[in-house]
Amino acid sequence: MRSPPLLISAFDVVYLTYAGNPAPAHVIHWVDDRPNRVLIVQYDTNNTNKATMDALGVPFQHKSDVKPYLLHPEAPAGIVDGPFGVVSSSLQFRCYDTTHGEITLEDARANNITPILVGGTTGGVVLGVDLDRHIVYSGDIDLYYSDKGGNATQGTEWLNTSTLVDTSSNAEKLIFNLWAWIAEVALSE
Questions:
Q1: CA 126 to CA 139: how far, in whole Å?
Q2: By 3-state DSSP, what share of the chain in percent is helix, strand and coil, each rounded to 5?
Q3: Which member of 37, 42, 167, 170 has the lowest number of beta carbons within 10 Å of its beta carbon?
Q4: Is 121 helix (H, G, I), strand (E, B) or coil?
């Protein structure tokens, strides 16, 4: 197997968003090469990082659903009860649009993915983490910003990073706790 390109080797956290389509073998070799690396892979439409998801052996489906994402009861304790606070089990999280990717619970469990958020109607994993391999699976969950306009529905929370020091909402606590876990892993060499 060829080594990953030199640039990716310089990082301990890589976030595969919609931009680009890296060679899956390089990405998988990179994350497995050192125990403190964290891979964040976003999946949404049928072709968003599909090659990487296929190489990881994790199938997903493209969904369109306006229902909010719900906190799964098996969500990791360090992420729902982390340094930025305790996330309420009644959290209803919404992203900025209605399309997203979901991994079935059966496929998630078969791939050692612990569910964090699941789709409101079908219950597939829209945010999950493989705690052993340090891979975060994001089915179009905004881990950095989400607009408060557009498709907001009553009783749901949006991530709003306009006040980065305010962790009053459950959505902010969840995402900030997740980033704290990512930072802890990346700095734990």
A1: 4
A2: 25, 25, 50
A3: 167
A4: coil
pTM for the whole structure: 0.85
6-186: CATH topology is: Rossmann fold (3.40.50)
Give residue 144's pLDDT: 65
pLDDT, tens digit (0-9, with 9 covering 90-100), for 141-187: 777 654 443 333 334 454 444 444 556 778 888 888 999 999 999 99
DSSP string, 32-64: HHSTT-EEEEE--STTTTHHHHHHHT---EEEE
- Residue where the block lists tokens 């309420």: 88
Q: What does the block give as tokens for 2? A: 């060829």
Q: What is the dihedral of CA 118, 96, 167, 77, to 10 degrees?
A: 10
Give the containing element (helix H, strand E) for 85. strand 85-86
In b/e form, how buried is each residue of 65-98, taking b as 16+ CB within 10 angstroms?
beebbbbbeebbeebbebebbebeeebbbbbbee
- Predicted confidence at residue 89, as pLDDT, reads 92
Quickly count: other Cβ atoms within 10 Å of residue 99's Cβ: 13
Spans of all domains in the chain: 6-186
Residues constituting the chain: 189
